[in-house]
Protein backbone atom coordinates (compact mmCIF):
# COMPACT_ATOMS: atom_id res chain seq x y z
CA UNK A 1 0.00 0.00 0.00
CA UNK A 2 1.22 3.46 -0.83
CA UNK A 3 2.41 5.65 2.05
CA UNK A 4 2.00 8.87 0.05
CA UNK A 5 -0.42 11.69 0.83
CA UNK A 6 -1.90 11.80 -2.65
CA UNK A 7 -5.46 11.15 -3.85
CA UNK A 8 -6.76 10.66 -7.41
CA UNK A 9 -10.16 12.29 -7.94
CA UNK A 10 -12.61 11.50 -10.73
CA UNK A 11 -13.09 15.13 -11.75
CA UNK A 12 -15.72 16.59 -14.08
CA UNK A 13 -14.97 20.25 -13.44
CA UNK A 14 -18.49 20.79 -12.17
CA UNK A 15 -19.71 22.15 -8.87
CA UNK A 16 -19.68 18.90 -6.91
CA UNK A 17 -16.22 17.70 -7.87
CA UNK A 18 -14.72 21.18 -7.54
CA UNK A 19 -15.94 21.31 -3.95
CA UNK A 20 -14.72 17.76 -3.41
CA UNK A 21 -11.27 18.68 -4.69
CA UNK A 22 -10.87 21.49 -2.14
CA UNK A 23 -12.50 19.41 0.61
CA UNK A 24 -10.02 16.56 0.04
CA UNK A 25 -7.09 18.97 0.15
CA UNK A 26 -8.26 20.37 3.47
CA UNK A 27 -9.71 17.31 5.17
CA UNK A 28 -7.01 14.82 4.23
CA UNK A 29 -4.21 17.39 3.94
CA UNK A 30 -3.31 15.68 0.70
CA UNK A 31 -2.29 16.49 -2.82
CA UNK A 32 -5.14 15.87 -5.24
CA UNK A 33 -4.56 14.46 -8.72
CA UNK A 34 -7.54 14.93 -11.06
CA UNK A 35 -8.70 12.57 -13.77
CA UNK A 36 -11.24 13.66 -16.39
CA UNK A 37 -12.45 11.05 -18.88
CA UNK A 38 -13.86 11.86 -22.30
CA UNK A 39 -16.22 8.98 -23.03
CA UNK A 40 -18.26 10.83 -25.60
CA UNK A 41 -20.43 12.94 -23.29
CA UNK A 42 -20.63 15.60 -25.99
CA UNK A 43 -19.17 18.39 -23.89
CA UNK A 44 -15.71 19.92 -23.98
CA UNK A 45 -13.59 18.35 -21.24
CA UNK A 46 -10.53 20.54 -21.62
CA UNK A 47 -11.99 23.39 -19.46
CA UNK A 48 -11.65 21.01 -16.52
CA UNK A 49 -7.90 21.60 -16.74
CA UNK A 50 -8.17 25.33 -15.98
CA UNK A 51 -10.64 24.69 -13.17
CA UNK A 52 -8.36 22.10 -11.61
CA UNK A 53 -5.39 24.45 -11.90
CA UNK A 54 -7.37 27.19 -10.14
CA UNK A 55 -7.78 24.76 -7.24
CA UNK A 56 -4.04 24.25 -7.00
CA UNK A 57 -3.94 20.88 -8.77
CA UNK A 58 -0.60 20.20 -10.42
CA UNK A 59 -1.11 16.70 -11.85
CA UNK A 60 -4.06 16.72 -14.24
CA UNK A 61 -5.09 13.78 -16.42
CA UNK A 62 -7.57 14.42 -19.25
CA UNK A 63 -7.99 11.45 -21.58
CA UNK A 64 -10.06 10.50 -24.61
CA UNK A 65 -11.32 6.99 -23.83
CA UNK A 66 -14.10 6.83 -26.41
CA UNK A 67 -12.63 4.05 -28.55
CA UNK A 68 -11.73 1.90 -25.55
CA UNK A 69 -15.15 2.53 -24.06
CA UNK A 70 -17.01 1.26 -27.11
CA UNK A 71 -14.68 -1.55 -28.20
CA UNK A 72 -13.92 -3.03 -24.76
CA UNK A 73 -17.11 -2.32 -22.84
CA UNK A 74 -20.12 -1.38 -25.00
CA UNK A 75 -19.59 -3.94 -27.77
CA UNK A 76 -18.92 -6.89 -25.41
CA UNK A 77 -22.13 -6.01 -23.57
CA UNK A 78 -24.16 -5.86 -26.78
CA UNK A 79 -22.88 -9.29 -27.84
CA UNK A 80 -25.16 -10.54 -25.07
CA UNK A 81 -28.14 -8.39 -26.19
CA UNK A 82 -28.06 -6.94 -22.70
CA UNK A 83 -31.12 -5.19 -21.29
CA UNK A 84 -31.76 -4.60 -17.58
CA UNK A 85 -35.33 -5.19 -16.37
CA UNK A 86 -36.62 -5.38 -19.91
CA UNK A 87 -35.87 -1.78 -20.93
CA UNK A 88 -32.63 -0.22 -19.71
CA UNK A 89 -29.64 -0.50 -22.06
CA UNK A 90 -27.18 0.23 -19.21
CA UNK A 91 -25.62 3.36 -20.64
CA UNK A 92 -24.41 4.71 -17.29
CA UNK A 93 -23.61 1.32 -15.78
CA UNK A 94 -21.21 0.22 -18.50
CA UNK A 95 -19.11 3.40 -18.30
CA UNK A 96 -18.25 3.02 -14.61
CA UNK A 97 -15.88 0.04 -14.81
CA UNK A 98 -13.71 1.87 -17.35
CA UNK A 99 -13.49 4.97 -15.16
CA UNK A 100 -12.70 2.82 -12.12
CA UNK A 101 -9.97 1.08 -14.09
CA UNK A 102 -8.27 4.33 -15.09
CA UNK A 103 -8.61 5.77 -11.58
CA UNK A 104 -6.74 2.78 -10.19
CA UNK A 105 -4.12 2.87 -12.94
CA UNK A 106 -3.46 6.58 -12.39
CA UNK A 107 -3.28 6.01 -8.63
CA UNK A 108 -0.57 3.42 -9.27
CA UNK A 109 1.24 5.67 -11.75
CA UNK A 110 1.25 8.60 -9.31
CA UNK A 111 1.89 6.58 -6.15
CA UNK A 112 -1.44 7.68 -4.64
CA UNK A 113 -2.88 6.00 -1.58
CA UNK A 114 -6.55 6.59 -2.47
CA UNK A 115 -9.07 7.40 -5.14
CA UNK A 116 -12.17 9.57 -4.69
CA UNK A 117 -15.45 10.02 -6.56
CA UNK A 118 -18.46 12.33 -6.46
CA UNK A 119 -21.23 9.72 -6.40
CA UNK A 120 -23.84 10.18 -3.70
CA UNK A 121 -24.67 7.64 -1.02
CA UNK A 122 -28.10 6.97 -2.54
CA UNK A 123 -27.10 5.85 -6.01
CA UNK A 124 -25.64 2.89 -7.83
CA UNK A 125 -22.48 4.64 -9.05
CA UNK A 126 -20.79 4.57 -5.66
CA UNK A 127 -21.13 0.78 -5.73
CA UNK A 128 -19.89 0.47 -9.30
CA UNK A 129 -16.83 2.68 -8.78
CA UNK A 130 -15.82 1.03 -5.55
CA UNK A 131 -16.44 -2.60 -6.48
CA UNK A 132 -14.36 -2.01 -9.60
CA UNK A 133 -11.56 -0.34 -7.66
CA UNK A 134 -11.37 -3.08 -5.03
CA UNK A 135 -11.43 -5.82 -7.68
CA UNK A 136 -8.49 -4.22 -9.52
CA UNK A 137 -6.53 -2.91 -6.52
CA UNK A 138 -7.54 -4.73 -3.31
CA UNK A 139 -5.49 -2.45 -1.04
CA UNK A 140 -6.67 0.86 -2.48
CA UNK A 141 -8.53 3.28 -0.22
CA UNK A 142 -11.71 4.76 -1.63
CA UNK A 143 -12.98 8.13 -0.39
CA UNK A 144 -16.63 9.05 -0.90
CA UNK A 145 -17.13 12.63 0.36
CA UNK A 146 -20.92 12.49 0.07
CA UNK A 147 -20.88 9.77 2.75
CA UNK A 148 -18.54 11.76 5.02
CA UNK A 149 -19.23 15.48 4.89
CA UNK A 150 -22.16 17.56 6.12
CA UNK A 151 -22.71 19.45 2.86
CA UNK A 152 -26.20 18.15 2.17
CA UNK A 153 -27.55 20.61 -0.40
CA UNK A 154 -26.64 22.68 -3.46
CA UNK A 155 -26.88 25.80 -1.29
CA UNK A 156 -24.35 24.35 1.13
CA UNK A 157 -21.98 23.60 -1.74
CA UNK A 158 -22.30 27.14 -3.06
CA UNK A 159 -21.65 28.56 0.39
CA UNK A 160 -18.55 26.38 0.66
CA UNK A 161 -17.33 27.78 -2.66
CA UNK A 162 -18.01 31.33 -1.54
CA UNK A 163 -16.08 31.07 1.71
CA UNK A 164 -13.08 29.45 0.00
CA UNK A 165 -13.05 31.51 -3.21
CA UNK A 166 -13.61 28.46 -5.39
CA UNK A 167 -14.42 29.71 -8.92
CA UNK A 168 -17.67 28.23 -10.16
CA UNK A 169 -19.94 29.35 -12.97
CA UNK A 170 -23.08 27.55 -11.88
CA UNK A 171 -24.97 30.34 -10.07
CA UNK A 172 -27.21 31.07 -13.00
CA UNK A 173 -30.60 29.34 -12.95
CA UNK A 174 -30.79 28.65 -16.68
CA UNK A 175 -29.20 25.21 -16.51
CA UNK A 176 -30.96 21.86 -16.78
CA UNK A 177 -33.37 21.08 -13.94
CA UNK A 178 -32.35 17.43 -14.20
CA UNK A 179 -29.40 15.40 -13.02
CA UNK A 180 -27.85 14.30 -16.30
CA UNK A 181 -25.21 11.78 -17.27
CA UNK A 182 -24.01 11.36 -20.85
CA UNK A 183 -21.55 9.25 -22.79
CA UNK A 184 -21.34 7.89 -26.31
CA UNK A 185 -23.95 5.23 -25.58
CA UNK A 186 -26.66 7.32 -23.94
CA UNK A 187 -27.81 10.35 -22.01
CA UNK A 188 -29.84 10.00 -18.82
CA UNK A 189 -32.13 12.36 -16.92
CA UNK A 190 -33.09 12.04 -13.26
CA UNK A 191 -34.30 14.27 -10.45
CA UNK A 192 -36.49 17.36 -10.54
CA UNK A 193 -40.02 16.73 -11.77
CA UNK A 194 -38.97 13.21 -12.80
CA UNK A 195 -38.93 12.18 -9.14
CA UNK A 196 -42.71 11.98 -9.45
CA UNK A 197 -43.31 8.88 -11.62
CA UNK A 198 -46.72 10.25 -12.65
CA UNK A 199 -45.25 13.42 -14.14
CA UNK A 200 -44.76 13.73 -17.89
CA UNK A 201 -41.32 15.02 -18.92
CA UNK A 202 -41.35 18.15 -21.04
CA UNK A 203 -40.41 17.80 -24.68
CA UNK A 204 -37.51 20.22 -24.32
CA UNK A 205 -35.80 17.81 -21.92
CA UNK A 206 -34.72 15.48 -24.73
CA UNK A 207 -31.40 16.49 -26.33
CA UNK A 208 -30.39 13.74 -28.74
CA UNK A 209 -33.63 12.63 -30.35
CA UNK A 210 -36.41 14.36 -32.20
CA UNK A 211 -39.96 13.55 -31.10
CA UNK A 212 -41.15 10.52 -33.13
CA UNK A 213 -44.19 12.40 -34.41
CA UNK A 214 -41.89 15.14 -35.72
CA UNK A 215 -39.48 12.76 -37.41
CA UNK A 216 -39.35 12.65 -41.24
CA UNK A 217 -42.44 11.39 -43.00
CA UNK A 218 -40.33 9.09 -45.19
CA UNK A 219 -38.59 6.05 -43.66
CA UNK A 220 -34.80 5.80 -43.64
CA UNK A 221 -33.14 2.52 -44.56
CA UNK A 222 -29.73 1.55 -43.22
CA UNK A 223 -27.50 -1.50 -43.44
CA UNK A 224 -25.19 -2.75 -40.70
CA UNK A 225 -22.45 -5.28 -41.32
CA UNK A 226 -21.27 -7.51 -38.46
CA UNK A 227 -18.13 -9.52 -37.95
CA UNK A 228 -17.76 -11.85 -34.97
CA UNK A 229 -20.76 -10.29 -33.25
CA UNK A 230 -19.60 -6.68 -33.52
CA UNK A 231 -20.77 -4.05 -36.03
CA UNK A 232 -18.01 -2.97 -38.40
CA UNK A 233 -19.79 -1.03 -41.17
CA UNK A 234 -22.77 1.28 -41.60
CA UNK A 235 -24.07 1.67 -45.15
CA UNK A 236 -20.90 0.09 -46.57
CA UNK A 237 -18.69 2.53 -44.63
CA UNK A 238 -16.12 0.91 -42.35
CA UNK A 239 -15.89 2.80 -39.07
CA UNK A 240 -14.03 2.49 -35.79
CA UNK A 241 -16.20 1.38 -32.83
CA UNK A 242 -16.62 4.89 -31.42
CA UNK A 243 -17.28 6.50 -34.80
CA UNK A 244 -19.76 3.77 -35.69
CA UNK A 245 -21.76 4.27 -32.51
CA UNK A 246 -21.69 8.03 -33.01
CA UNK A 247 -23.02 7.53 -36.55
CA UNK A 248 -25.86 5.36 -35.28
CA UNK A 249 -26.69 7.98 -32.66
CA UNK A 250 -27.04 10.59 -35.39
CA UNK A 251 -29.20 8.34 -37.56
CA UNK A 252 -31.37 7.20 -34.69
CA UNK A 253 -31.72 10.70 -33.25
CA UNK A 254 -33.14 12.21 -36.42
CA UNK A 255 -35.68 9.37 -36.64
CA UNK A 256 -36.92 9.61 -33.05
CA UNK A 257 -35.32 6.31 -32.04
CA UNK A 258 -34.25 5.36 -28.53
CA UNK A 259 -36.30 7.24 -25.94
CA UNK A 260 -37.35 5.43 -22.77
CA UNK A 261 -38.98 6.37 -19.46
CA UNK A 262 -38.25 3.78 -16.76
CA UNK A 263 -38.75 3.08 -13.08
CA UNK A 264 -35.87 0.77 -12.20
CA UNK A 265 -34.78 -1.09 -9.09
CA UNK A 266 -31.49 0.27 -7.79
CA UNK A 267 -28.97 -2.09 -6.21
CA UNK A 268 -29.10 -0.08 -2.97
CA UNK A 269 -32.76 -0.96 -2.54
CA UNK A 270 -34.89 1.94 -3.76
CA UNK A 271 -36.87 2.44 -6.93
CA UNK A 272 -35.74 5.26 -9.21
CA UNK A 273 -37.37 6.90 -12.21
CA UNK A 274 -35.13 7.89 -15.08
CA UNK A 275 -35.47 8.90 -18.71
CA UNK A 276 -32.93 7.78 -21.28
CA UNK A 277 -31.94 8.44 -24.87
CA UNK A 278 -30.03 5.57 -26.47
CA UNK A 279 -30.58 5.95 -30.22
CA UNK A 280 -27.51 4.11 -31.50
CA UNK A 281 -27.74 1.37 -28.92
CA UNK A 282 -31.40 0.74 -29.72
CA UNK A 283 -30.53 0.29 -33.40
CA UNK A 284 -27.57 -1.92 -32.57
CA UNK A 285 -29.61 -4.21 -30.32
CA UNK A 286 -32.25 -4.75 -33.01
CA UNK A 287 -29.66 -5.42 -35.70
CA UNK A 288 -27.56 -7.76 -33.55
CA UNK A 289 -30.53 -9.93 -32.64
CA UNK A 290 -31.46 -10.06 -36.34
CA UNK A 291 -28.06 -11.34 -37.46
CA UNK A 292 -28.01 -13.83 -34.59
CA UNK A 293 -31.42 -15.14 -35.68
CA UNK A 294 -29.88 -16.74 -38.78
CA UNK A 295 -26.37 -17.56 -37.54
CA UNK A 296 -26.81 -18.93 -33.99
CA UNK A 297 -27.79 -22.48 -33.10
CA UNK A 298 -31.22 -22.70 -31.46
CA UNK A 299 -30.02 -23.95 -28.07
CA UNK A 300 -27.14 -21.46 -27.97
CA UNK A 301 -29.66 -18.69 -28.66
CA UNK A 302 -31.93 -19.87 -25.87
CA UNK A 303 -29.02 -20.29 -23.46
CA UNK A 304 -27.87 -16.72 -24.15
CA UNK A 305 -31.40 -15.42 -23.59
CA UNK A 306 -31.59 -17.28 -20.28
CA UNK A 307 -28.24 -15.95 -19.10
CA UNK A 308 -28.72 -12.37 -20.31
CA UNK A 309 -30.76 -11.12 -17.31
CA UNK A 310 -28.06 -12.41 -14.94
CA UNK A 311 -25.36 -10.77 -17.05
CA UNK A 312 -27.33 -7.49 -17.14
CA UNK A 313 -27.77 -7.56 -13.38
CA UNK A 314 -24.03 -8.03 -12.87
CA UNK A 315 -23.27 -4.95 -14.97
CA UNK A 316 -26.02 -2.87 -13.38
CA UNK A 317 -24.84 -3.77 -9.87
CA UNK A 318 -21.19 -3.03 -10.59
CA UNK A 319 -19.70 -6.50 -10.96
CA UNK A 320 -18.07 -6.02 -14.37
CA UNK A 321 -14.69 -7.10 -12.99
CA UNK A 322 -16.10 -10.15 -11.17
CA UNK A 323 -15.09 -13.72 -12.07
CA UNK A 324 -18.69 -14.65 -12.87
CA UNK A 325 -19.04 -11.81 -15.40
CA UNK A 326 -15.78 -12.82 -17.04
CA UNK A 327 -16.96 -16.45 -17.21
CA UNK A 328 -20.24 -15.40 -18.81
CA UNK A 329 -18.35 -13.15 -21.22
CA UNK A 330 -16.20 -16.07 -22.35
CA UNK A 331 -19.33 -18.07 -23.17
CA UNK A 332 -20.96 -15.11 -24.92
CA UNK A 333 -17.85 -14.35 -26.97
CA UNK A 334 -17.51 -18.02 -27.98
CA UNK A 335 -21.07 -17.91 -29.30
CA UNK A 336 -20.25 -14.98 -31.58
CA UNK A 337 -17.64 -16.57 -33.83
CA UNK A 338 -20.17 -17.11 -36.65
CA UNK A 339 -22.28 -14.00 -36.01
CA UNK A 340 -21.23 -12.23 -39.18
CA UNK A 341 -23.22 -10.79 -42.05
CA UNK A 342 -25.47 -7.88 -42.96
CA UNK A 343 -28.77 -6.59 -41.61
CA UNK A 344 -30.98 -3.97 -43.25
CA UNK A 345 -33.30 -1.91 -41.08
CA UNK A 346 -36.19 0.47 -41.70
CA UNK A 347 -36.37 3.43 -39.32
CA UNK A 348 -39.61 5.35 -39.18
CA UNK A 349 -40.92 7.76 -36.54
CA UNK A 350 -39.42 6.03 -33.51
CA UNK A 351 -39.81 2.47 -34.77
CA UNK A 352 -37.27 -0.01 -36.14
CA UNK A 353 -38.14 -2.90 -38.46
CA UNK A 354 -35.83 -5.56 -39.80
CA UNK A 355 -35.99 -5.61 -43.60
CA UNK A 356 -33.45 -8.29 -44.43
CA UNK A 357 -30.56 -10.30 -43.04
CA UNK A 358 -27.87 -12.24 -44.93
CA UNK A 359 -24.81 -14.24 -43.93
CA UNK A 360 -22.48 -16.82 -45.45
CA UNK A 361 -22.67 -18.49 -42.02
CA UNK A 362 -26.47 -18.63 -42.02
CA UNK A 363 -28.11 -21.77 -40.60
CA UNK A 364 -31.34 -20.93 -42.39
CA UNK A 365 -32.00 -23.56 -45.10
CA UNK A 366 -34.71 -22.59 -47.62
CA UNK A 367 -34.91 -26.17 -48.89
CA UNK A 368 -35.89 -27.42 -45.45
CA UNK A 369 -38.45 -24.77 -44.52
CA UNK A 370 -40.17 -24.42 -47.91
CA UNK A 371 -43.90 -25.10 -48.24
CA UNK A 372 -43.21 -26.37 -51.74
CA UNK A 373 -41.61 -29.67 -52.75
CA UNK A 374 -38.44 -29.99 -50.65
CA UNK A 375 -37.04 -32.87 -52.73
CA UNK A 376 -36.59 -35.04 -49.65
CA UNK A 377 -34.69 -32.46 -47.56
CA UNK A 378 -37.11 -33.08 -44.68
CA UNK A 379 -39.14 -36.24 -43.99
CA UNK A 380 -42.42 -35.09 -42.47
CA UNK A 381 -43.24 -38.58 -41.19
CA UNK A 382 -40.41 -38.19 -38.67
CA UNK A 383 -42.61 -35.70 -36.80
CA UNK A 384 -45.02 -38.43 -35.66
CA UNK A 385 -42.47 -40.25 -33.50
CA UNK A 386 -41.05 -36.96 -32.28
CA UNK A 387 -44.47 -35.82 -31.09
CA UNK A 388 -45.35 -39.15 -29.44
CA UNK A 389 -42.08 -39.26 -27.51
CA UNK A 390 -42.60 -35.72 -26.23
CA UNK A 391 -46.23 -36.51 -25.37
CA UNK A 392 -45.39 -39.68 -23.41
CA UNK A 393 -45.01 -38.04 -20.00
CA UNK A 394 -48.13 -35.95 -20.62
CA UNK A 395 -50.17 -39.02 -21.44
CA UNK A 396 -48.87 -40.92 -18.41
CA UNK A 397 -49.65 -37.97 -16.16
CA UNK A 398 -53.11 -37.58 -17.64
CA UNK A 399 -53.91 -41.26 -16.95
CA UNK A 400 -53.19 -40.58 -13.28
CA UNK A 401 -55.29 -37.41 -13.33
CA UNK A 402 -52.30 -35.21 -12.50
CA UNK A 403 -52.76 -32.71 -15.32
CA UNK A 404 -56.34 -31.74 -14.47
Detailed description of the structure:
By secondary structure, the chain is α/β, with parallel strands linked by helices. It has 2 domains: 6-66 and 91-163, HUPs (Rossmann fold, 3-Layer(aba) Sandwich); 179-358, Argininosuccinate synthetase, chain A, domain 2, CATH 3.90.1260.10. The chain has helices at 15-27, 47-54, 66-78, 96-109, 125-136, 154-163, 241-254, 279-295, 298-317, 323-335, 366-369, 382-399; strands at residues 6-10, 31-38, 60-64, 114-116, 141-143, 179-182, 187-190, 220-227, 230-234, 237-238, 259-265, 271-277, 341-348, 351-358. It has a 5-stranded parallel sheet, sandwiched between helices. A 5-stranded antiparallel sheet has the order 10-9-8-13-14, covered by helices on one side. The chain has a 4-stranded antiparallel sheet with strand order 6-7-12-11, with no helix packed on it. α2 links the parallel β2 and β3. α9 packs antiparallel against α10 (323-335). The radius of gyration is 25 Å and the shape is elongated. The model is unreliable at 170-174 (pLDDT under 50).
Amino acid sequence: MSTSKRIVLAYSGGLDTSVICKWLQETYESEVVTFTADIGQGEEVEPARAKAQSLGVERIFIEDLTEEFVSDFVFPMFRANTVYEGEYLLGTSIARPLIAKRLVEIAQETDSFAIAHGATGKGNDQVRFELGAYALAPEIQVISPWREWDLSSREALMQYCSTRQIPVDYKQSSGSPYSMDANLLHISYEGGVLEDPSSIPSEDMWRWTIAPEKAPDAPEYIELKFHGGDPVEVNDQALSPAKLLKKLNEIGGRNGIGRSDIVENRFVGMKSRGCYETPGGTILLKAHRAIESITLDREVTHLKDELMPRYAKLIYNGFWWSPERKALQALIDESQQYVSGSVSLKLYKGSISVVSRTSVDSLYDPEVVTFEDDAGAYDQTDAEGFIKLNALRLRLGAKKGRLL
